[in-house]
Amino acid sequence: MSWKSCFLLDWPWAYLESLKYVLYGPLIAKAVHTNLYGGKEADNWCFHILLLTSLRYVTYQLWATFSNMYCLSHRYKICKKGAEFDQMDREWDWDNFLLLQAFMATAAHHFLPFFRDMPAWNAGGLICLAILRMGPAEVLYYWAHRAFHKDFLFQRYHSLHHAAIVLQPQTAGTATFLEHIGLTIIMAVPMVGASWMGGASMGMIYIYCLLFDFLRYMGHSNVEIVPETIFRCLPPLKYLIYTPLYHTLHHTEMDTNFCPFMPLYDYLGHTINSKSWDLHRSMSAGQVEDVPDYVFLAHIVDVLSSLHVRFLLRGFCSTPFATWWFLLPLWPVVIPVALAMWVWAKTFVNTGHRLKGRLHQTWIVPRFGFQYFIPFAQAGINNLIQDAILSADKMGVKVISLAALNKNEALNGGGTLFVNRLPDLRVRVVHGNTLTAAVILNELNPDVKEVFLTGATSKLGRVIALYLCRKGIRVMMLTYSKERFKSIQSEAPPEFQNFLVQVTKYEAAQNCKTWIVGKWIAYKEQTWAPVGCHLHQFVVPPIFELRKDCTYGKLAGMQLPDAVEGLSTCEYTMPRRCVHACHAGGILHSLEGWEHHEVGAIDVNKIDMVWEAALKHGFKPMK
Q1: Where are the membrane-spanning stretches (predicted)?
Q2: Within the chain, how many helices (H) and strands (E) appear?
Q3: Are residues 54 and 178 both part of a single domain?
């Protein structure tokens, strides 16, 4: 029998995908009717179910943010590996159990009379709840959990939850329909029992559900936050309170540590992992910080893209960035945060991965794209970049590469400012644009005879023009400065200089079917592209795809080598496991062990060498 056909395996609303949230509609309608139109539901149950569910989402988000915020959690990470994209996909619908429990709570209110007309508070009920939770409910959970580890049930149901070795708060909710029915019933035993004995209260339900979630998410956070000193001072507590490490051991050595909240039952059942306390003692002291071999210094593009970071919306950042409707209400919330970051924030670590045993990290300068073009803000931005370079140098980082605006020519001369200002740097400063140029040039059709180039006198535009003219390709360079054009033309070998042609209007390219766009263009300029034209680009942010009769290239990027581990975040609009070409260029610089700084003008003679080195290390052109 296929596991896919197992009884109660799939969720009933799985086919709805993201539309499953419509199922909250009846609860919302009932709550609105009760509060605004004087409905009959005296205790406002549906409203409380929705409010409690919202608070449970908030509890999850706080744990997800904490566990993925490097500055807070990196020293106490239990598993140093990062989650992968396949884990993101498996755990995409982690919140199905919240929907299930909202339905079951509504049914309980309808069928069980002691869940109606409850007072706000009843201290006696909380005492009964605690006794029932620590006794019958925990015993039930322990034996049910052990049953699910028997081969028959494990292979058909429980293996989904254990597919994650790197635990995340979402892992807590990732399980099959049957498992969550059982978990919900066990979870409800203390509430039903306490309420049946006359201890029901709304406060009891809120406290129990939120504390239950808090402890579950804590155990799956992959961060050891429980100090060892409390167990040393009060030894019995180690049998009453579990720790994230205790539960992580269950996922790595699955025949041990079955009881999530009270290790006492593992002790009584002889299933406690003998290494639990020794490992917890060493883990709670903190670990030595890993020094990255390579750092990519990125920046924020715009307000909404600032939400595309791992510690905010993990599922969202595991897909290429796009402006979704659910982001729009967050726009006014981000603005004051952006202003606060402008005043106080320093560079922070967003994510990292490993390649051939070497740690690579992405650091973010907390500045938005528009700020780079405000004259009075530029000195402050350069100071932030310089501080990041000095921090990397002090840590022992070998290579730091600069993202698009962090190496803007007008800002710091493509990184030249820092190399000149800090002559004793051990860390190599890299703009990575040699590989960017190589990617753009290798995207062109081999039979192309003529191209139209905007941003022609920029760092990339200059080297693209010089490379193409050497291949006998006519390059129409859009520039209004005759002096800058002549300067670039003089760099070309004399026999190829006539292949570089200065143009000052877009009309000149109305018959050219290959455009390379290095300067942002709107619809008016795009109208001059002929039908069937392909527009390559190296402009940030990318141009809008406004012509249906033309095709558009993406920003230059490369697919990372297959050996990269711990990657679960998409880099801005890049597909999964792909990065911008300048990022790949920095990684390549590190892998090759090159000792030179790559700043300022691009050496046209190194383009082919860099391209071949990238392919040798397993980088692939983006599909």
Answers
A1: 185-208, 325-345
A2: 25, 14
A3: yes
For the segment 182-209, the average pLDDT, to the nearest whole number, is 94
Q: Is residue 236 part of a domain?
A: no
Residue pLDDT, tens place only, 133-186: 999 999 999 999 999 999 999 999 999 999 988 999 999 999 999 999 999 999
Instruction: Say if residue 538 is in the same domain as residue 413.
Output: no
**For residue 440, which of 413, 415, 414, 468 has the smallest C-alpha distance?**
468
Give the structural domain span for 486. Answer: 435-555
Domain count, the chain: 3
Give the integer Cα–Cα distance in Å for 173 and 99: 11
Assess whether 571 and 502 both reside in one domain: no
* Final residue belonging to a domain, choices 555, 587, 606: 555
Chain centroid to CA 98: how far?
23
Q: Single out the residue of 306, 381, 374 nearest to residue 342, CA to CA.
A: 381
Hey, what are 109's tokens?
Answer: 């209110």
Do 51 and 146 lie in a common domain? Answer: yes
Could you tell me if residue 102 is inside a domain?
yes
pLDDT score of 358 more than 60:
yes
* 226 in the same domain as 98: yes
Q: Are 78 and 243 in contact (CB under 8 A)?
A: no
Rounded Cα gap, residues 364 and 349, in angstroms: 6
Question: 240 pLDDT band (50/70/90 cuts)?
Answer: very high
With respect to residue 589, please indicate whether it lies within any of the assigned structural domains. Answer: yes
Is 592 inside a domain boundary?
yes
The residue type of 320 is P
Output b/e per residue, 456-494; b: 16+ Cβ within 10 A. Answer: bbbbbbbbbbbbbbeeebbbbbbbeeeeebeebbeebee
Mean pLDDT of the region 358-383: 91
- Examine the fold and report which residue of 214, 231, 248 is the final residue of a domain before the chain moves on: 231
Confidence of residue 261 (pLDDT cuts 50, 70, 90): confident
Model pTM score: 0.90
546 and 611 fall within a common domain: no
Distances, alpha carbon 496 to alpha carbons 471, 601, 604, in Å:
8, 20, 14
Distance from C-alpha of 285 to C-alpha of 91, rounded to nearest angstrom = 31
**Taking a C-beta distance cutoff of 8 angstroms, is the pair 240, 264 a contact?**
yes
**What is the C-alpha to C-alpha distance for residues 109 and 461, in angstroms, rounded to an integer?**
68
Do 465 and 415 share a structural domain? no
Q: How confident is the model at residue 1 (pLDDT cuts 50, 70, 90)?
A: very low
pLDDT tens string 547-586:
999 999 988 999 999 999 999 999 998 999 999 999 999 9
Nearest-Å Rg of the Cα atoms of the chain is: 29
Rounded distance, CA 261 to CA 279, Å? 18
Contacts of 193 (CB under 8 A, 6+ apart): 128, 129, 132, 136
Starting at the edge strand found earlier in the chain, the sheet holding 551-555 runs 500-503, 474-478, 450-453, 514-517, 534-537, 551-555
615, two tokens: 């392919």
Q: What is the CATH number of the domain that holds 501?
A: 3.40.50.720
Residues 29 and 154 in one domain: yes
Torsion of CA 161, 167, 170, 174, to 10 degrees: 0
Tokens representing residue 490 in the block: 């003089």
Quick one: what percent of the chain has pLDDT higher than 70? 99
At 3 the pLDDT is 43
**Do you find a cis peptide bond into 227, omega within 30 degrees of 0?**
no
Question: Is the pLDDT higher at 323 or at 248?
Answer: 248
Alpha-carbon separation of residue 330 from 20, 315, 325, 370 (angstroms): 22, 16, 10, 19
